[in-house]
What does this fold into?
Amino acid sequence: MELKEFLKLIASEYGPGGYEENVVKIIQENISKYSDEVKTDNSGNLIAFKKGNGKGKLLLEAHVDEIGLVVSKIVNEDYVRIHMVGGVDYKILPGQRLKIFGRNGKVYRGVVGMLAPHLQKSSDRGKVIDFDELFVDVSMNDEKPELGSMAVLDAPVVELGETLLTGKALDNRSSCAVIFEVFKTLSKIKHDADIYALFSVKEETGGVGATVASFSIEPDIAIILDVTHADVNGSMEPEIKLDGGPALGIGPTVNREVFETLKKAAEENNVKYQIEPLPGRSGTDADSIQLVKKGIKTGLVSIPLRYMHTPAEIVSIEDLKEAVRLLTAYIIKF
Amino acid sequence: MFLSELSTIAGVSGNESKVRDFIKKTIENKVDELYEDKMGNLIALKKSKTQSSKGRFAFFAHMDEVGFMVTRINEDGKLSIHPVGGVDARLLPGKRLKIGEKGTPGVVGLKAIHLQDNLDNVPSYQSLKVDIGVNKKSEAEKLVSVGDYAIFDVPFEEYSKHLIGKAFDDRGGCSLMMDLIFEDLKLPFDVYFAFVVQEEIGLRGSGVAAEEIKPDIAIVLETTTAGDNPELEEYKWATHIGDGPAITFMHRGYVVNKKVYEWIVDTAEKKGIKYQLKRRTAGGTDALSVSKRLFGIPAGVVSIPCRYIHSPSSVMYKDDYFDTLNLLKALLEEGEVILS
Amino acid sequence: MKDIIKTLTEISSPSGREDTIAEKIVEILDGNFDEYWRDKLGNLIVLKKGKTGKKVLLDAHMDEIGVVVTNIDENGFLRIEAVGGVNPYTLVGSRVRFQNNVVGVIGIEGESFRSSRENMKNLSFDVLFVDIGAKNKEDALKKVKIGSFGTYDASFHDLGDKLVSKAMDDRIGCAVMVQLLKELEEPLNDVYCVFAVQEEIGLVGATVAGYDIEPDVVIAIDVTAHGDTPKALKRIPMKLGDGPALKVMDAYSISDRKVLEFLEELAKKENIPYQIEILPFGGTDAAAYQRLKAGVPSATVSIVTRYVHTPSEMVDYNDVLNTVKLLKSFVNSEFLF
It folds into this structure.
């Protein structure tokens, strides 16, 4: 499957923290033919293995989970209340349609309700709606979702012009798609290092999956793939541009040599790249992977993305392709 | 004491190599083993002189200091910076910085007082910019890069009883460990010294070092906040300069192991060493990350009290430093008590 | 079992000072185990051997929230800081008990009506002090020291189905494990009961307790919030008396889905009432076990509790009994975790 098609497929599937099986299954089915071994671990992580000449162990990691919602209370036949799984900005919720995944396997519709402006008190207009006061209308379903059902915003990925894609969960299915494409490429070339691809669970809720899987894989070097904020008009935030190529993280949570090697690999192969300063923790799985056991050397490669954690996330397929070229070059160099 | 050298070296979290190199060079002939782990922690071992070692004793102090990172080079050639660790933005106006490996000088400008509309505007990292004497982005890029670290550019000063400098937190602890290494220790157990990285951004290096050492007990050496100034009521002081080493019973996220805490206090009492208890529980130390590693490592905390930490001008009282050193020596003499 | 709950909740053992409670638990267990030990950080671990070689680890923390003395002034008044999530408003009007049974009363600073109002409005530990009836500093030092730990001074009350006491969080979990150990003959799986230390200040004990045990599955037993009092948080459903709460998620962890669904099926099969829990805040020791080594499937079974972190935490006795029943059935199940 082509990179773009694969991304559309996995990003449109649902998989909030702890409930990633469907996405994991699709990746597993597709990556198997390019891997020597594929398995899931005790925590639900998917690990694909591609043998090299045993010269070192390289881990490519991307979290597979997305932010989501959970039905936290049944109010009555028509309404439920919700809680977030990961950092959802609830300002974007009113008026959204939800796909609710029942604990019995059925899929339901939900609409996040809001009082029409006509009926609002004038003093309430212009105020941010309190999350505690949000409700979801489930009246349209014949059967109703149960307490504890997970939900995601119904925003399948669509194309926006020639190169851009928009939708939910591009954070971090974009990186999953990049790793998938790297494995495809690896099936055609020789490489020395043993390559592990880790599609980890529960990142948005604390990086659990990456920590425990890295413990069992124990790689020499781990390259973490995630997304980063693009085109932010701030005064101190890093300047990362959509279509500027993958961003290479630099800072405490990244090993300096790994950073330099990645940068060199990009330069030698005319891969477009940008530098992302990380003055502290990176907010990615790199933070926890670096501290596993006696320490793991980490590199961080991020896909520029606009409007993170909304159903209107935007990435450029060109940035993904450059990231694939970068990682392939890095692996050959390894 | 190695504080005069240690204080002036640049070693912001994630970029501790210069501090590490200095320590390595200074102690390499005084220890039995010396190595650097994958994260950059430097671990030294003084082996037990007796036949069979009775356990592993470990000291921890962090090499890193708070500072800044260049996050953006603006069109006008000025730099945007972000703190690495906790540095109050209000400390910055009018200060001089050293940026990057080459130590490019820069100043943090502030609109002259005559021109300010509102004197109460609080300086913030969003508003403050670093001037390195160029007015084009392309010029600036020849001198610095995005991702460069920066520190306050200040000298170390020594007076009859006091020391002034940056980065006493925790080069004070590093210096104590180096002094201990230079002592002729004759001990029935192995003593490890872990000079760790990345404490200031979330206690990150120490856990990895603990995994390497697997100590039976750990003592974290810190330089801690005093708070003994006229703007704070006495009961809110954390420590007082001149009252000797501060012993911690609890801090954020960890109650110091009761046995270890009582052993430290008892030892100070027994040997007649001046000490004080740290009287605030805010803030964390590497004791938190060390105690939560592996099967659980009981960790204690001993600190040199120090005024104005995380600023370019920390003030330390020399006697406190030496009282702390004496307490540590006493703890080693009494080490068998806690290891058994 | 009410006696066990009374005894365990009335003991004063805040985070970091768990020796008293640990000793009492061992005493009450009265030999109903194969082995017990305390690890380096003080976790009490009690083992009852099974037949399959599979290891089930049950965890309840034995520490409780409390206070610690940080200063003693010339007139003998103490200053304190919180050990864990003590709300200063809860302290006003209540009493604290220090480890050597010294009791203190809480007072608030206020030099003018305005400052009194301000202090009450933005209450913090900075404006609170403790009066232990000392004449002066010297007198106070005979009773407490800087670094003395204390807890709420409150007693147990049996209201019938409902039980009230301080420290239900998480002595109720400890009581469940004690009762379970007493009732278990020879379980199918090895049962490791961890009475963990320092949960309230950051899951310290549980982070290391499983390291040498390497369990196959973990269930943390802890309290959770309620939604069944007037104008209680409207996004949560939990009710006292509806049975043990199977946690889907809280702020620190998402329960392992396989374990959660297994527990749910088990409850249905055994006709044990249960409820589903989603907690928008808080966390339990399960979060630590999920991160242990290569990862352990972990979930939380909660006892719904009203007024958590006050001197009067309330649980429903039937929920407690049903939790024992559910866990007993769990440790005797064959499973594939």
Remarks:
- The interface with chain B takes residues 15-17, 19, 39-43, 68, 70-71, 73, 79, 81-83, 126, 146-147, 149, 198, 201-202, 204-205, 207-209, 211-212 of chain C (CB under 8 Å).
- The first strand of chain C starts at residue 35 and ends at 38.
- Chain C has a mean pLDDT of 97.
- The CA atoms of residues 143 and 215 of chain C lie 44 Å apart.
